[in-house]
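User: I'm putting together notes for a lab meeting next week and I want to include a structural view of one of the chains we've been expressing. I don't have a solved structure, so I'd like a prediction I can at least talk through. The sequence is below, exactly as it appears in our construct file.
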Amino acid sequence: MVLFTKECPMCLVLEQKLKEKGIEFEKSTDFTEIEERGFTRIPVLKIGENEYLDFSAANKYISQL
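Assistant: Thanks for the context. Below is the predicted structure for the 65-residue chain, given as C-alpha cells.
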C-alpha cells in the first residue's frame, strides 16, 4: 500500500488513520512520480497493483478495515 502525498491536511488525515489502524504503508512524496502517474489530486492511496483511491474512497476504505 502506498500513500501518495504532498503533506496537505487531507494527506495527513489519511496518514494518521493508517497509523491508528496499524496498517503498514509506504509514503511517496516524489512529485515527479505523482505527475507521471497522472494524479491531479492528492492524496491517492494505491492498493495492490492497479487500485487507486481518492481521499473520500481511501478514507472509507481505511475506516472499514
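A couple of points you could mention at the meeting. The first helix runs from residue 9 to 20. The two ends are 13 Å apart (CA to CA).

User: Perfect, that's what I needed.
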